[in-house]
Structure formats: C-alpha cells, structure tokens
C-alpha cells in the first residue's frame, strides 16, 4: 500500500470520521486525559504525527499542551486545525509523512502516534524509518506514545469483521439520522497483513447511502514493535494495556535515549 493510497483513504474519510464515535467530544476528552497521564508533565511540546481530524491532538491541547499535528492526509490535517479553532484552541497542522518529519532535531517533549496509524507502514524498513524520525525530533528522554490494535490476539484469531456501530437518533451524535459503521478484514496468506474495507451507511429518509473505503495494515505484534523501537534509539520500552491507562488501545510507552 503506497503512501498516496493511505492518504487518499483518510482524505475520503475526513468529513465523516467523527461519526464512528457516539460522542466525539467525549472521546476527545477521554483520550486526551489518558495520553496526558502517560506524558506525566504539564504544558509540554507535543507532536501528534498521525493527527487525523484531531481526536488526540485536540484532547492534549485541552490539557494545556502545546501541540503540533501532522498527517499524511492534507484534508484531515486541515480539519484538525479547524476543529481546534472551533474550540478556541491553537493547533498548527501540516501534511507530512511520519517517515520524513519537517522539524528540527530535539524539538518536542513528546511524540504521539495513536489509533493504529503506524501499522499502515507494511515493512520493518518503513516502521524503523518512522520510529527513527520520531526519535530524531524528540529531545533526550522525551516520551513516545504509540497505540495499535491488540495484534497478538488478532493474529491468532484472524477476525473477518468488526461489529457494527450504530449512532444517531437517541445518542449524542451531532447528525440527526443514523450512521452504521463496520469493517471487513481480508487476511493475507502470511497471516500478518490484511486489507480493510471500511463501510459507513448513512440514513437518508427511507433510504441509505453507502461509502466504502479501502486500505492495508500490517498486524505488527508487540514484541516486534518494541524491538524496532529499541533499534531506533528508544529505551524504557513497555506496553500498557487499556485497563491500566484508560486509553482504548494498547500503548507502547518509551523514552528517547540520551
């Protein structure tokens, strides 16, 4: 999967991304609080290098951090800045590939790469390149936070789909009619990569409008990702699970080496 097609996937999703949540603002606050607790310092400089439409970046800005967001999708990055401004927050965003970050060495106190973004990179070489860039832009002892799906379990079970999420009338969604979201997963023979089809169905009166978007992931296991982080210059690497962090995915937490 090329960076162009991944960017296109999120360009197409940008306007509708918030509809995967029953209450996007509540998720922003909850995820920001959880990540803030892992950073463990007040008002630091943070790079969210896969900011999407701003779920984690806005959440951290609400906690008082000085956040910069980048994303492979220009459309998503623009929306993140716009959503932050709507909440009277300052969030500078830009389109950028996490394997080539447009920042000077040691600029940030923390780097976040959340919501299963890193596994869009499909080879060890690309993952290592991205982690090396995150290390480069971190100050010594700066904090790295990476979240992925629980791939050790998923590789074993190889699910074919996710459960449907239905949001709309009767919940906190900001759009009046119902939206249904689900995914189909098509696993490769290697057992590690899968193509994902992301379905969103939008109720329009008595009819439904359907959008389907496709992308590819690498089901990157925790030991393998931790090893790649160590090779890229990170230390004190550990995985923290949702039941201890309150974040919705497993979090790799590490520090940049001296």
UniProtKB/TrEMBL annotation:
Keyword Transferase present in the record's keywords: the answer is yes
GO MF terms, alphabetically ordered: methyltransferase activity
Task: Output the GO biological process annotations, alphabetical, semicolon-separated.
Answer: methylation
Alphabetical list of Gene3D superfamilies matching this protein: Vaccinia Virus protein VP39 (3.40.50.150)
Domain Methyltransferase positions: 46-142
Q: What is its EC number?
A: 2.1.1.-
Q: Which UniProt keywords apply?
A: Methyltransferase, Transferase
Do you know which PANTHER family this protein is assigned to? METHYLTRANSFERASE, OS06G0646000 PROTEIN
User: In its UniProt entry, what is this protein called?
Assistant: Class I SAM-dependent methyltransferase
Species in which this protein is naturally found: Streptomyces aureus
Its ancestry begins with: Bacteria, Bacillati, Actinomycetota, Actinomycetes, Kitasatosporales
């Amino acid at each position: 999967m090329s960076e162009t097609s991944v960017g296109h996937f999120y360009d197409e999703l940008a306007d509708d991304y918030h509809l995967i949540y029953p209450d996007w603002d509540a998720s922003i606050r909850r995820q920001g609080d959880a990540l803030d607790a892992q950073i463990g310092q007040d008002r630091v400089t943070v790079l969210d290098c896969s900011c999407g439409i701003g779920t984690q970046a806005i959440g951290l800005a609400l906690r008082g951090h000085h956040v910069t967001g980048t994303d492979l999708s220009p459309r998503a990055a623009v929306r993140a800045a716009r959503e932050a401004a709507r909440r009277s927050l300052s969030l500078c965003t830009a389109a950028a590939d996490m394997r080539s970050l447009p920042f000077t060495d040691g600029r940030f106190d923390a780097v976040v790469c959340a919501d299963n973004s890193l596994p869009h990179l499909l080879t060890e070489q690309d993952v290592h390149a991205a982690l090396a860039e995150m290390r480069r832009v971190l100050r010594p002892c700066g904090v790295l936070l990476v979240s992925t799906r629980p791939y050790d379990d998923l590789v074993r079970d190889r699910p074919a789909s996710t459960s449907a999420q239905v949001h709309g009338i009767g919940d906190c969604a900001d759009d009046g009619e119902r939206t249904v979201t689900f995914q189909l997963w098509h696993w490769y023979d290697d057992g590690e990569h899968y193509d994902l089809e992301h379905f969103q169905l939008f109720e329009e009166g008595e009819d439904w409008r359907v959008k389907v978007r496709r992308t590819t992931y690498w089901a990157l296991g925790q030991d393998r990702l931790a090893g790649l982080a160590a090779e890229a210059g990170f230390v004190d690497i550990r995985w923290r699970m949702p039941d201890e962090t309150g974040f919705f995915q497993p979090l790799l937490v590490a520090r940049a080496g001296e």
